[in-house]
UniProtKB/TrEMBL annotation:
This is SRPBCC family protein. SUPFAM superfamilies: Bet v1-like.
Length: 150
């Protein structure tokens, strides 16, 4: 199972970073390249433990829906979401926040299994892992900009 780990230093307090990362409206701003929007479940505000949200977005030129659920939360240090339904076979995305007094390190750990058996494994090697890494880095970069300017 591939695992993508990315860390971003943000010059903002841990609580602010934690709340921005689980804010549905901010999520749509940080994923504007894929036109992501919440279409079912929790569609506004801050995601809480047990909440689920269905995201609609365009990836690889195809409109897709993905339903994720928050299965773990320890505010303001960590929360984890898992895919319930969607294009992947499965995924777990853990968001961790480490307080450094003058700022916060936001650590994304995204572990996933591609769909479609061997075809999915080939797609992962050819392009999927790189695509997902770039998606996570882009979202973190946008979240950093928001956190450091608001």
């Amino acid at each position: 199972m591939p695992k993508i780990i990315h860390e971003t230093y943000i010059e903002a307090p841990i609580g602010k970073c934690f709340d921005l990362a689980r804010n549905v409206e901010i999520h749509t701003v940080t994923t504007k390249n894929t036109n992501e929007k919440a279409v079912a479940g929790v569609t506004t505000g801050l995601l809480q433990l047990g909440d689920s949200v269905t995201w609609e977005a365009t990836h690889f030129g195809v409109k897709q829906r993905l339903n994720a659920k928050i299965i773990n939360m320890n505010a303001p240090r960590t929360f984890t979401d898992v895919m319930i339904r969607g294009a992947f076979h499965s995924f777990t995305h853990t968001h961790e926040f480490i307080d450094y007094n003058v700022g916060t390190v936001m650590k994304d750990t995204f572990a996933y299994k591609a769909p479609l058996g061997i075809i999915g494994k080939i797609a992962d090697i050819l392009f999927l892992e790189k695509y997902m890494k770039n998606f996570i880095i882009s979202r973190a970069s946008e979240l950093k900009k928001i956190a450091e300017t608001k």
